[in-house]
Structure formats: C-alpha cells, structure tokens
Model the fold of this input.
Amino acid sequence: KPINGIVTVNAEHISYDLSGYPAAPFTADSVVDAFVNMKNASPVGCPFTFITDKTTLASMSVMKPSSMRSLLGGVEGSILDVYGGEYEFDKFTVRLWNNRGSNRGVSIRYGKNLTDLKQEESCSSVYTGVYPFWYSEQDGLVQLSEKVLNAEGTYNFIRIYPLDLSQEWQDKPTEAQLRSRATTYMTANRIGIPKVSLTVSFIQLAQSEEYKNYSLLEEVHLCDTVNVEFPELNVSATAKCISTTYDVLTGKYAEIELGDTKSNLASTISEQTQ
Done:
C-alpha cells in the first residue's frame, strides 16, 4: 500500500491458470480429440472444460510435456495453429468457435458514429505458396511430386514458404497426407492475404439515449464483423472486432478496435526464430 493510499491491482483472467496445468505427450486426429486427449493427458485434476463446434480433421502431435495454456495457442503446433478458430474464455469453460461472433448489420460510418480511423496494411507475412516437406534421418525426405502448392489468388510476384511438417508424424507420411495438411495450413493461416488493421474509435449507438429503442440493432460484440465506411479515405471494408476498452465507471465502451491483431517487435522476432 503506497503513501497516498491508492492500491493498484493488476489481474489476469482465470484461464491463465491453465499455465499451471501440464499435459503429457499425446496425439490427436481431430480438434475434438485434441481437447479430450489433452485433458486426459494431465497428471493432475484439471477443472477446466473444453468445448468446440469445429469438426476439423488434422493430425496433432505433442512430443514433450507442455502447459495446457501453451497448447491452446500462441506456439507452433498448438491447437489454434493446427485447427484454427476463435477462443472464448468464460470462467472455467474454454470454447473454440469456428466463428465466435456474427455480422449484426452494424455500420461504422463517417458522419454517423465514427470518431477516428487509422488503417495499416502489412505484406510481411504474405506468401504465394508453400513447399511442404517431412524429414527424418532414418526415413529421409518426403515431398510432393509438384513440390510447391500455390495459394489461391493471382500474384505478380513469387514468395514461397518452406513448410516443415516433420513434427506432424512420427512415421513416414504419404504424399496425400502431406498435401492435405499443407492445404489445411494455407487455409487456416490465410497466407496469401495481407494483414489489414483498422483502429476505429466510434460511439456505440446502443449506449446512446437516441438509439435506446434500437439498441439491439447497433450492438457490437467481440469477434463480430461490422461494416466500415469512410468515403473521404476510400475505405469500404468489413472488419472483425478484435479488442474492446470498457469503462466500468460509466458502464460504456470507450473504444473498439477492428481488423487483424497487430504484431509487435517481440512476436516478430519470435516468428523469425521459428
């Protein structure tokens, strides 16, 4: 307690307790199996429940003991990395949605409710295709007969990502397995699409007196898709709500961020290392 008597408390969500629950090595062939096998592989009782509406089929292998939190996402080979989706953490319930939010028809428009807009676009993570392979000293190299799988789209440049899938299978995979996993990877990571970030500040009209009778038509929730219109900057796009700033004193949202999450220096260095 400082001299002025004002105590600052920094708290994190209860889901971060998953960092203290380990899981022994396990394998899975689908996203449902991944959650079931991860929890069963814990040497201690885990109070968390894992739910998903996804049915994605893909192989996942955990070769060494890891914390459940890291296995959920944020590292290469995690459930999010392999199967994609959007998480929702609700106390001790972890849900992986195919699409967590929805498009409620909300429009963010200049002259209506838009107060500030900043758009950034990054092509640093754009690849036009992948070169998938599997390798072990005992069985050698497995690659596709065509070697490269191209991403959907038309490009005036070539940028191919060497996709190392050696950790996906313990035994030598077939060419069909390699092709299927590489196709899933390209779709889940949207490798051919630039990262566009829209930082938008706007008045959520559902919270205003004038729109109180139409509040359900103007609500924006986390992971919802909204339409952003700013003719003066030639901006007409759909973007996902990725971050909210909520003022608990006024009971209103102060800022809502739309677009793709921005990478910071630490995550960029981490990706280069991987």
Remarks:
- The helical segments are 31-40, 68-72, 79-83, 175-189, 265-273.
- Confidence is low (pLDDT under 50) at residues 213-217.
- The CA atoms of residues 71 and 78 lie 5 Å apart.
- The first strand starts at residue 22 and ends at 23.
